[in-house]
Specification:
By secondary structure, the chain is an alpha+beta fold. Helix content is 46%, strand content 10%. It is elongated, with a radius of gyration of 34 Å.
Length: 398
């Protein structure tokens, strides 16, 4: 029977190499002097080497016992020790992943996808809906334990708010699909049929000011000194969405050309949009301080304004309308009080017109005609409508 080195003998070795210390067990000394145990075996016609750990943490007798266990696994069970260890590591990793809560998975999903969403609004909407409706109910539940009852605990309290409920359900489904793709669960209870009513949600339009009242409103707005008042005035003059205005940066403004170019990542359509600035809009911009990247400043120096500042301004002014609603005021005015073609008006609102084929042939943005339209709108906004609904002719070249 082969006699193997003792612990005392092994401790004296210093030369780089591999030294037999038991059946299939070797002490390996590296070129840097580190000492570790190796289990060396042959399977399927090839030699394999499995590390067991460093000598200072695993004494000789324990290393031999571990080698004996691996040899029994190999000879009696016919199991490759390295492959068995890898399988165990994978199982432990999956078990650890399955121990994640729904909230942890949702936060990870949002971080992975937020860069592909347009602007920051989508991320805020996701986070807000989860914090209000989802996390209080199932945020601490393990991702693998989410079932139909858990999904319904989220949806039942908001099923009368059908639009919100459907959005929350869709987001729940996306998180659970993400978990399925990572082998954290096997099914998606958020996609079960009949979780929500099939009736069409009631369409509620955003409250808008009648266009005949816009000029009087602009006079009232001009008497206020808040930065939010200037932002709302600019939004009305440009018929722009509130988020586009509050996120406007000076780098997007060309004062010489009187244009504002909004990058595609901040547009609902995902495409860049050029806004022709009226004379009044240019004057407004020229009157603003330049203290950072953003045109309209938030409460903190150089910061972007809070998304709610326009809503809060309108509340302080006592108007039960929305900032977004002024786009409807503009569109109604353009349709009833001017002869501008529909596509010019829709282009001013940054709406996508027609199907893919029509869009392919309509590659211009009609900037010159839109500039005339926005100047006419600016002029209308500067003069209270004393005609009481009588059509005021507007000369234009459309």
């Amino acid at each position: 029977m082969r006699k193997y080195r003792s612990a005392k003998d092994l401790a004296k070795l210093t030369k780089r190499g591999r030294y037999a210390a038991g059946p299939n067990l070797y002490l390996q000394i590296s070129e840097w002097g580190t000492r570790s145990w190796i289990f060396r075996y042959r399977i399927g016609g090839r030699h394999r080497h499995m590390g067991l750990g460093p000598l200072e943490l695993l004494p000789l007798n324990e290393a031999r016992n571990r080698a004996d266990e691996l040899r029994r696994q190999l000879k009696i069970d016919g199991v490759d020790p390295i492959e068995a260890k890898r399988a165990g590591d994978r199982a432990a990793r999956v078990a650890g992943e399955r121990a994640k809560t729904f909230k942890e998975c949702a936060i990870e999903y949002i971080k992975q996808h937020e860069d592909s969403w347009r602007g920051d609004a989508s991320r805020r909407q996701w986070v807000s809906s989860f914090e209000h409706h989802v996390f209080p109910k199932i945020g601490d539940a393990l991702i693998g334990d989410i079932d139909v009852a858990a999904v319904l605990s989220v949806l039942d309290p908001i099923r009368d708010r059908l639009v919100t409920a459907r959005r929350v359900r869709n987001r729940l489904g996306l998180i659970l699909d993400w978990a399925i793709s990572r082998d954290l669960r096997s099914d998606n209870p958020a996609k079960r049929p009949n979780l929500l009513p099939k009736r069409k949600p009631k369409v509620t339009h955003l409250a808008a000011l009648p266009y005949v009242s816009v000029a009087a409103f602009m006079i009232e707005l001009g008497q206020r000194e808040e930065m939010s008042a200037r932002a709302l005035e600019f939004a009305i003059l440009c018929a722009a969405r509130p988020g586009e205005v509050l996120g406007a940066r000076w780098s997007e403004i060309d004062m010489a050309e009187a244009t504002w170019t909004i990058p595609g990542e901040r547009m609902k359509s995902g495409r860049p949009h050029r806004v022709p600035l009226s004379g009044r809009a240019v004057e407004l911009l020229a009157s603003l301080p330049r203290e950072g990247d953003f045109v309209f400043l938030g409460a903190r120096t150089g910061a972007q304004p809070h998304p709610m500042i326009l809503i809060m301004l309108l509340r302080r002014m006592g108007h039960a309308v929305t900032a977004h609603g002024f786009r409807a005021s503009f569109k109604t005015w353009a349709g009833e009080r001017t002869n501008y073609a529909r596509e010019v008006v829709e282009a001013a609102l940054a709406h996508v017109i027609g199907d893919a084929a029509e869009q392919a042939y309509s590659r211009g943005d009609m900037l010159a005609r839109r500039r005339q339209l926005m100047e006419a709108w600016s002029e209308y906004c500067s003069k209270p409508d004393t005609a009481n609904g009588v059509v005021v002719p507007l000369r234009q070249g459309a």
